[in-house]
Structure formats: C-alpha cells, structure tokens
C-alpha cells in the first residue's frame, strides 16, 4: 500500500476516505471478459445473417467496433456519471471496484485529473458513438463517400 493507505502511485496522492478494494482482480476481470465475449459473439452471429454480403473482415471489424464502442460508452460513462468518488464507497458497485483496479495502472483516474476527465468526455461523446456508428454503417452497407 502507498504511504496514505492506498496502492496508487505516487504514494503522496491524497484520496480522503479511501476504502480498500474488496473484489480480486479475477472477480473484476471475469464479468468484463464474459460481457465482452457475449457482445462479440452476438455481433458475429447477427452479422452472419446478412445473407453473405459481409466479408469475414467486415464482420471482424464490426465485432471490434461494437466491443470498443460499448466498452468506452459504458465504462467511461459510469466513470464520469456514477463513480466520481469510487475510491471511498463503503458499499462499492462493480464499477467502483473496476476503477480502483484500473487506477492501479493510471492513478490519474483516482485523482480525477482534469485531462483524464476531458479525454473521457471525448470518449463518451465521440469515440464510443463513432465506433457504434461504424457497426451500423457496415450492416447497412452505407458509406459517407457515397452520400
């Protein structure tokens, strides 16, 4: 643990009311992986019903865009909207625990760094929706170039 009772770097990072993580890394990773596999599998199976007009490359890209779009919208959305003080929740949700673990890799999330907040706004507002739009456009065989 860091100097202030938390596992984040720098040890001097002030996190008033820090509550240690209750879920293990595996308990956090398993639901995320399960949900990710379900999303990719669903997109793969549904895209296969397009009468063979989508290549495997298109279908693979659709799976990636759906995964990344939903990951960014759901996780970044929960970070900004529902987890502003995730490190101090006495009865943490899965998302609070997820961000405690995630912050071990980038403590700017725990510190609510303004640059991170600005990047997450961009992620929620543009990157996630653009990825989901790419899935939709691929299914409908729409292209910005042909409009």
Automatic annotation (TrEMBL):
Topology class, membrane: Multi-pass membrane protein
Cellular component per GO, a single term: membrane
Keywords of the record: Membrane, Transmembrane, Transmembrane helix
The EXPERA domain, residue ranges: 57-147
Subcellular location: Membrane
PANTHER family registered for this protein in UniProt: 3-BETA-HYDROXYSTEROID-DELTA(8)DELTA(7)-ISOMERASE-RELATED, STEROL ISOMERASE
This protein's name: EXPERA domain-containing protein
